[in-house]
Write a structure and sequence with these properties.
Elements lengths: L9 E6 L1 H10 L5 H13 L1 E9 L6 H17 L4 E3 L12 E8 L8 H10 L2 E5 L22 H13 L2 E3 L5 H10 L5 E2 L16 H10 L2 E4 L15 H15 L4 E3 L26 H9 L4 H19 L1
Parallel strand pairs: 1-2, 2-4, 3-4, 4-5, 5-6, 7-8, 8-9
Helix pairs in contact: 1-3, 4-5, 8-9
Bound molecules: zinc ion (ZN).
């Protein structure tokens, strides 16, 4: 069946859903996916999503384990709608939504690096970043020491992840760590939710040099719909200006390396309403980006790649 340009299916590489499932389960809430997520995903035609388990830097290993296990359980409890992606064979295009467990920040890993990454893999994690904004045993986030790259354990983590085919996410890491990962990783990497620093000068966005390195490495960059990564001017924090990042990156490194990683915050506990793009406050508005890509002159084939196919094909190759 042809899907029209008006309602194109999307693969979102970053949604902090694992964290949302966990925080709501701690409050004894039931049916979290169906209550808070299902409708928005369906409205936005999100057909694939990385359900991120997010750790800010203070959590210990057992906390990480609990959130990851809980995320698996919630996906399994919704098997009528979701299909967990663990191998390339799981990538099937039907009516279900693909759900891949990702980890944002490995602060809980302070020793036995290989063993713990293996545990993550056995429990379904297929994409992970070494660090969030903090400094941890493996690496430093973008806000931390610019002179500290990967630690010895950080390098071991990269090797172990390569061996297991767990994909390395470089969103949030500082530049020195980024270049270490480029150096040590034998596999393509992804920046699940980062934009272009040339268009919006923010430490979370990627420089042209970094974008070119990801192209060279065969990786992907996910367009982030958080306002402050789109533009410094609040009036320009919208889907149109996010599409401009796609245009800039496409001109620099080619459309094959661009994907989506919206980072919707509506379901995080707290008030994040003004953090998102004006017309992309949650997953139900995701098609606004499709419209904006069209306005900026991308053709249907290119939009399909950015929206869905680049991620799907990347996972088919790399898992
Ligand atoms: Zn993030």
């Amino acid at each position: 069946m042809m899907t029209g340009i008006k309602n194109m299916k999307i693969f979102d590489m970053h949604a902090d859903m694992g964290t949302n499932f966990y925080e709501r389960h701690l409050k004894q809430e039931k049916d979290v996916f169906k209550t808070y997520h299902k409708e928005n995903l369906l409205k936005g035609n999100i057909k694939g999503v990385f359900t991120a388990c997010f750790f800010c830097g203070t959590e210990d290993w057992s906390y990480m384990q609990e959130m990851i296990i809980n995320c698996s359980k919630e996906i399994r409890a919704n098997e009528d709608i979701l299909r967990q992606i663990k191998t390339k064979e799981d990538l099937i295009e039907d009516n279900k939504i693909s759900a891949l467990i990702s980890v944002e920040g490995m602060c809980g890993i302070k020793d036995n690096v290989e063993e713990k990454i293996e545990w993550m893999y056995e429990n379904g994690v297929r994409v992970a970043s070494l660090v969030w904004n903090e400094s941890n045993a493996l690496a430093d986030g973008w806000k931390q020491d610019p002179n500290r790259g990967l630690s010895k354990d950080g390098i071991r983590a990269v090797h172990k992840m390569n061996e297991l085919k767990m994909i390395i996410d470089v969103s949030h890491i500082n530049e020195k760590g980024f270049w270490d990962i480029i150096k040590y990783s034998k596999k393509p990497i992804i920046a699940t939710h980062s934009n272009s620093r040339s268009l919006c000068d923010h430490g979370r966005n990627l420089s042209d040099k970094q974008l070119l390195a990801i192209k060279e490495n065969g990786g992907l960059i996910g367009l982030n719909a958080c306002g402050h990564f789109i533009d410094k001017d609040r009036n320009k924090e919208d889907s149109y200006h996010l599409a401009k990042h796609a245009k800039y990156m496409a001109d620099l490194i080619g459309v094959e390396h661009i994907a989506c990683g919206f980072d919707y915050m509506d379901f995080l506990v707290g008030d994040y309403d003004d953090e998102m793009a004006i017309d992309m406050s949650n997953a139900s508005y995701s098609q606004n980006l499709i419209k904006a890509l069209k306005e900026l002159g991308f053709n249907e084939l290119e939009i399909r790649k950015i929206a869905y196919e680049n991620v799907f094909n990347f996972l088919k190759r790399e898992l």
